[in-house]
């Protein structure tokens, strides 16, 4: 049995379904027909690795449903999430006479999903697109919510558009082939959702991680109940993300409340800085966010009354993700410098997502937190690793 999460966007007629289940890829054809009525042809964007694993199943199902499909493979990795790749994808759309009654499918992780969504947003000012996420991070986070975009020489994810998918299909069986560090990165984002959502999702995440070791994830599929539990776990994560998006689709910059989309940035201030000082090579994004959450939690203890007990609990649950934690050679000063790059402006524009308690995020202006508090928090996290 698959589970459905509906993203009904506030104030808009548009809503879409996120399907979470097992062995869904073989039903891709009927799914596409059900979410894009009267669909003509589809272009699938994937990469060599993911397509070699799952492309044939998706294409066979589309053919059986009499949907014409074309495949375009992009390079694998963050460096291919670029304007250059987007242009090549758009050229492929044009050469294949893709029209607004056709659709584009992203088959892959967040890199493929973000780029495909962006290409679909700008081609003919918007064609329908669908997401088939195949990493844990893309299942529970990037495929839901319509943030699409690419990187550039002036920063990550600074060029983009909000373009909601017409549907998302999550087949948890695809996680069987995912590398364990990629799983860890996804679980770090799952812990983040738990920490900002509430005790219920936090405990569910912690229980799941206690029950199933990330290191031998693929082997767990031999237990019948595992895939079902994984499906329920992914569903509850998706439901949380969907609820945030429903309520603040465009991340309203004036909002600072505990339900605004901004709270999803918990762990990202220090996380991005850690990625930057290590040239985006040392940590997976999710891992950097994992450590960034711990730094934000240390700051929360000082300025938002976050308790020592909950801080220890958060540390313990982040460790359960089997996070790659070697921070040797990273000094706290350079991490602070990486986000306090403009001392005049940044303090007033920087907004920290802190915790008053598990499930009680608070958005705090950078001006309210001293550099010493930030430095100490980062030093504490780095020293422990
Ligand atoms: P990714 O897309 O680079 O995938 C990680 C690796 O796993 C790749 O090498 C990929 O080929 C491989 N892979 C994918 N599925 C596989 C499978 N089933 N089996 C084996 N290998 C598989 O990384 P990601 O973590 O999925 O996504 C990261 C991207 O997501 C970043 O660019 C980030 O900015 C973006 N992101 C976007 C949002 C959003 O809201 N749009 C949110 C969070 C992150
Ligand atoms: N991943 C952050 C967001 O979707 O808003």
The SSE string, one letter per element, is EEHEHEHEHEHEEEHHHHHHHHHEEH
Residue stretches low in confidence (pLDDT < 50, at least 5 long) are: none
Largest sheet: 7 strands, mixed
What is the number of helices? 15
Structural class: alpha/beta
- Rg estimate, integer Å: 20 Å
Q: Helix fraction?
A: 40-55%
Note the overall shape.
globular
Amino-to-carboxy terminus distance: 42 Å
What is the averaged pLDDT score?
A: 94
The overall strand count is 11
Provide the β-strand percentage band.
15-25%
**Any ligands, ions or cofactors bound here, and which?**
nicotinamide-adenine-dinucleotide, glycine
Strand order within the widest sheet?
A: 1-2-9-6-5-3-4
Describe the protein.
- The protein is an alpha/beta fold and 385 residues long.
- It is built from 15 helices and eleven strands.
- It has a seven-stranded mixed sheet, with helices on both faces.
- Strand 1 (3-8) and strand 2 form a beta hairpin.
- The protein binds nicotinamide-adenine-dinucleotide and glycine (GLY).
- Nicotinamide-adenine-dinucleotide binds at residues 47, 49-50, 53, 76, 78, 81, 108-112, 114, 134-135, 137-138, 141-142, 145, 147, 157, 174, 177-178, 182, 185, 285.
Keyphrases for this structure?
single chain; 385 residues; alpha/beta; seven-stranded mixed beta sheet; two-stranded antiparallel sheet; 15 helices; globular; binds nicotinamide-adenine-dinucleotide; binds glycine
Task: Produce the secondary structure layout.
Blueprint: E1 3-8, E2 15-21, H1 28-35, E3 42-47, H2 48-64, E4 69-74, H3 83-95, E5 103-108, H4 110-122, E6 129-133, H5 136-142, E7 147-152, E8 155-162, E9 167-171, H6 180-197, H7 199-211, H8 217-220, H9 224-247, H10 268-277, H11 285-303, H12 308-320, H13 332-339, H14 346-349, E10 351-357, E11 360-365, H15 371-384
Parallel strand pairs: 2-9, 3-4, 3-5, 5-6, 6-9
Antiparallel strand pairs: 1-2, 7-8, 10-11
Helix pairs in contact: 1-2, 3-4, 5-6, 5-9, 6-7, 6-11, 7-9, 10-11, 10-13, 11-12, 11-15, 13-15
This protein binds nicotinamide-adenine-dinucleotide (NAD) and glycine.
């Amino acid at each position: 049995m698959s589970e459905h999460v509906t993203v009904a966007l506030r104030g808009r007629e548009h809503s879409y379904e996120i399907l979470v289940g097992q062995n869904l890829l073989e039903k891709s054809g009927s799914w596409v027909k059900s979410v894009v009525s009267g669909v003509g042809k589809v272009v699938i964007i994937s990469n060599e690795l993911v397509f070699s694993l799952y492309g044939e199943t998706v294409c066979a199902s589309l053919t059986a449903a009499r949907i014409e499909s074309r495949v375009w493979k992009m390079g694998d990795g963050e460096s291919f999430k670029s304007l250059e790749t987007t242009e090549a994808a758009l050229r492929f759309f044009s050469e294949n006479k893709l029209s607004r009654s056709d659709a584009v499918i992203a088959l892959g992780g967040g890199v493929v999903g973000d780029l495909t969504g962006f290409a679909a947003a700008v081609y003919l000012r918007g064609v329908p697109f669908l997401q088939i996420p195949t990493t844990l991070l893309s299942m529970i986070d990037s495929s839901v919510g319509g943030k699409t975009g690419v990187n550039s020489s002036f920063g990550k994810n600074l060029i983009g558009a909000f373009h909601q998918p017409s549907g998302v299909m999550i087949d948890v069986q695809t996680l069987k082939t995912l590398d364990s560090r990629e799983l860890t990165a996804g679980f770090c984002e799952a812990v983040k959702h738990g920490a900002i959502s509430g005790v219920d999702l936090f405990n569910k995440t912690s229980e799941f991680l206690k029950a199933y070791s990330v290191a031998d994830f693929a082997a767990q599929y031999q237990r019948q109940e595992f895939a079902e539990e994984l499906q329920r776990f992914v569903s509850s994560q998706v439901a949380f993300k969907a609820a945030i998006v429903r309520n603040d689709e465009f991340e309203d910059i004036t909002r600072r409340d505990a339900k605004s989309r901004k709270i999803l940035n918990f762990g990202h201030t220090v996380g991005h800085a850690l990625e930057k000082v290590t040239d985006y090579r040392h940590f997976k994004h999710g891992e950097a966010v994992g450590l960034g959450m711990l730094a934000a939690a240390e700051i929360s203890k000082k300025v938002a009354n976050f308790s020592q007990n909950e801080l220890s609990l958060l540390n313990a649950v982040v460790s359960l993700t089997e996070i790659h934690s070697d921070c040797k050679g990273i000094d706290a000063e350079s991490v602070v410098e990486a986000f306090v790059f403009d001392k005049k402006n940044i303090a007033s524009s920087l907004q920290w997502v802190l915790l008053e308690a598990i499930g009680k995020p608070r958005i705090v202006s950078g001006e309210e937190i001293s550099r010493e508090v930030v430095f100490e928090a980062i030093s504490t996290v780095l020293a422990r690793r």
